[in-house]
Amino acid sequence: MADVEDMKAKDLPRRSWKQDPDRVRAEIIGVARAAFARKGLSGTRIEEIAARMSTSKRMIYYYFGDKEGLYREVLAEAYRRIRRAEEALDLEHLDPVAALRQIAEFTFENHAAQQDFIRLVMIENVHAGAHMPDTEEMSGQNVSAIRLLEDIYSRGCEAGLFRTGLSALELHWHISALSYFNVSNRATFSKIFGGELFEAKGQARLRRHVGDSVVRFVLKSDRLPEFDGHSRD
Questions:
Q1: Partner of 163 at 20 to 30 A CA spacing, among 34, 115, 174, 206?
Q2: In b/e form, how buried is each residue of 168-184, taking b as 16+ CB within 10 angstroms?
Q3: Are 24 and 16 in contact (CB under 8 A)?
């Protein structure tokens, strides 16, 4: 009887793989994301990922083909998570200046909270983007970020608040650059200058500065409007 029960217990993971493949894929991606962000593509072993979720290498290969296939899917899902968070923002009711500030500060804060994402991007840049998912897929996933900024920027231009001649892609670059550095260079910056800017108070100040910088860059006048409370200190 005990042998039968043991066999049933061992068969539970196998049955769950068949009954809920989407959940299994998501679990593998979650474990792999942490592993790849910590050790990179070359330093991560499939055996380590399998051991962390009590599954087999064969099951991982079944879903993703090989380690590079899993790594590519981890990258794609990391970008999808960032885009989904941006799409959840409610900016239409805000005036263009407040909306631009909010998306800039949100990106700064979200990147700081999603440090695995930044590490994955750092690692993929070392690989010269060789493992990025298909261009069409990545462009589709990133349309939302550009679309949000296009709407905000055009509203600001129509209202006579923003200077013309800029593009949403340029604004996205500036916002991303400021937010990315805060995570990518945190370790070395702290070693040289101390960690004050990376404590809660310092991060709140930097977040506000990012909003100031982006808004000032776009405004017709470099005089910032009175702060309206959308940024959180």
A1: 206
A2: beebbebbbebbbebbb
A3: yes
Structure token digits, residue 175 = 């916002």
Tally of residues, the chain: 233
What are residue 162's DSSP bridge partners? 219
CB-based contact 72:29 (threshold 8 Å): no
Beta bridge partners of 219: 162
Domains of the chain with bracketed CATH: 1-65 (1.10.10.60), 81-233 (1.10.357.10)
pLDDT in tens, 23-59: 888 999 999 999 999 999 999 999 999 988 877 888 8
Residue 219: φ, ψ to 5°: -60, 145
Contacts 24+ apart (CB under 8 A), 165-173: 166/218, 171/100, 171/214, 171/218, 172/145, 172/146
